[in-house]
């Protein structure tokens, strides 16, 4: 591993540019797993995925396999997916429901809170000093687990800021997503779309609030929407939702320039909404009626007035609160990243309204859509291009020095590269922090 001390790491990041090494150096990737994914709050799931005792889902934090489960006490636990005996991975399925976890190697069993339940031929341990109550022999719990309005985060680090401190004012995007439910609750429905792309994990995060790319990257999918509309719609007729979601990436630069970007502490950021938030179709009007019945007209207007598109919670999750979508990334290698996409149902909203959520998910966030592959092709080409030794630097100059600082955040016009610069301030903070 290259000798990256704090000074060498600081030399990789400047206020308006970064070294290409941070995307292509395997040694730096290993340090990221240790110092970012090993210390930060990482989204591991939503409480609705483990509704009942015995429900579980598996995921990873960095390279650490973990299990999120609901125990008979009603609490949600996040456990290391490792047997306390010889270290085998205990849970092999992505999700399910069990009475207990059982290791496939020697049959040790564990309760869904991680405590050791039973050992075959237990008398073999009599008089050895072995203690079944010792948590080291269980599926050990992660040192910190907290939930904010149903979104469960965990940290491999025993100490650090609270989840609410980490989320900061950016947590209002989670509030926005949950408050849009007439019942004040969300639920994940079904599984997820899963895709692996051939690029560094940071490239995905940079792209989310990059408003200079849609007109270029999505040119082919926008054109496909235009052709369909021309062939199937009368002149002046409104686009159906799937076509509208596709064509809106073709807004001119002037549109994106007028949006607002906000950068928050810890690397978080969000951009203003890009799709018209209000509709007049019968499905949306039924949803409005359900909201007004639950909250009253004034509070409903206040909730729906919030208009945001992508919100990034650095380093591994992004939500689209107005469309009930969540994208979660898992770094696999310096040039490989896994992304899972979840769709949420607003409890209390009409069933037909949830179908619109699924339409958005399929048209925009599905691996089989004509939109997502545009982005992934760009990510892959960036990763390949960075191998060229033309220059050691990657530019983040756009609108540098024109940010508008506030007490809780910094804002900028919609085409600024503020969100990227903000992410690298957080990256630098994690990578140079004392252990």
Descriptive overview:
- By secondary structure, the chain is of the alpha+beta class.
- β19 and β20 (about 335-345) form a beta hairpin.
- About 40% of the residues are buried.
- It is globular.
- The protein starts with 5 loop residues before the first helix and ends with a helix.
- About 30% of the residues lie in helices and about 25% in strands.
- The chain has two domains: about 45-155, Rieske Iron-sulfur Protein (3-layer Sandwich), CATH 2.102.10; about 175-430, Naphthalene 1,2-dioxygenase Alpha Subunit, Chain A, domain 1 (Alpha-Beta Complex), CATH 3.90.380.
- The strands form five sheets. Strands 13, 14, 15, 16, 17, 18, 19, 20, 22 and 23 form a ten-stranded antiparallel β-sheet that branches.
- The model has no long low-confidence stretch (mean pLDDT about 95).
Helicity, in percent?
25-40%
Q: How does the helix and strand content classify structurally?
A: alpha+beta
* Contiguous uncertain segments of 5+ residues: none
Please give the radius of gyration in angstroms.
23 Å
How many structural units, i.e. domains?
2
Tell me, what is the CATH class of the largest domain? Alpha Beta
- How many helices? 15
In the CATH hierarchy, what is the superfamily of the largest domain? Naphthalene 1,2-dioxygenase Alpha Subunit, Chain A, domain 1
| CATH architect. name of the largest domain | Alpha-Beta Complex
- Tell me the fraction of residues in β-strands, as a range: 15-25%
Instruction: Estimate the mean pLDDT confidence.
Output: 94
Global morphology: globular
CATH domain fold name of the largest domain: Naphthalene 1,2-dioxygenase Alpha Subunit, Chain A, domain 1
Largest beta-sheet characterization: 10 strands, antiparallel
Total beta-strand segments? 23
Distance between the termini: 18 Å
């Amino acid at each position: 591993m290259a000798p990256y001390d704090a000074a060498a790491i600081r030399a990789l990041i400047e206020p308006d540019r970064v070294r290409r090494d941070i995307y292509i150096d395997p040694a730096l990737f290993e340090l990221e797993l240790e110092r970012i994914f090993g210390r930060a709050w990482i989204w591991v799931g939503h409480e609705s995925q483990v509704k009942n005792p015995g429900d579980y889902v598996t995921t990873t934090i960095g390279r650490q396999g973990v299990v999120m489960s609901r125990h008979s006490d009603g609490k949600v636990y996040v456990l290391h997916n490792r047997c306390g005996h010889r270290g085998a991975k205990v849970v092999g399925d992505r999700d399910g429901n069990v009475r207990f976890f059982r290791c496939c190697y020697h049959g040790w069993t564990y309760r869904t809170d991680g405590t050791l339940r039973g050992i075959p031929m237990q008398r073999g341990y009599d008089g050895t000093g072995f203690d079944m109550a010792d948590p080291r022999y269980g599926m050990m719990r992660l040192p910190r687990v907290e939930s904010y309005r149903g979104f469960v985060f965990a940290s491999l680090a025993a100490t650090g800021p609270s989840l609410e401190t980490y989320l900061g004012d950016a947590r209002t995007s989670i509030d926005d997503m949950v408050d849009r439910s007439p019942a004040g609750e969300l639920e994940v429905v079904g599984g997820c779309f899963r895709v692996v792309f051939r690029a560094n994990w940071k490239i995905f995060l940079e792209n989310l609030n990059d408003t200079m790319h849609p007109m270029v990257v999505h040119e082919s999918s926008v054109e496909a929407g235009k052709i369909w509309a021309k062939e199937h719609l009368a002149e002046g007729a409104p686009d159906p939702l799937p076509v509208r979601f596709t064509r809106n990436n073709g807004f001119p630069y002037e549109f994106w320039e007028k949006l607002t970007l906000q950068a928050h502490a810890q690397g978080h950021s969000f951009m203003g909404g890009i799709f018209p938030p209000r509709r007049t179709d019968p499905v949306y009007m039924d949803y409005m009626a359900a909201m007004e019945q639950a909250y009253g007209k004034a509070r409903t207007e206040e909730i729906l007035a919030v208009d945001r598109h992508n919100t990034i919670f650095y380093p591994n999750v992004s939500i689209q609160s107005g469309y009930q979508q969540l994208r979660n990334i898992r770094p696999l290698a310096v040039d490989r990243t896994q992304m899972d996409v979840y769709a949420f149902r607003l409890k209390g909203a009409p069933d037909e309204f949830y179908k619109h959520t699924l339409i958005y998910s399929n048209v925009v966030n599905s691996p089989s859509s004509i939109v997502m592959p545009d982005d992934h092709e760009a990510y892959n080409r960036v990763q390949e291009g960075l191998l060229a030794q033309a220059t050691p630097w990657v530019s983040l100059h756009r609108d540098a020095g024109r940010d508008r600082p506030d007490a809780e955040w910094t804002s900028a016009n919609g085409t600024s590269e503020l969100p990227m610069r903000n992410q690298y301030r957080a990256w630098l903070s994690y990578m140079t922090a004392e252990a």
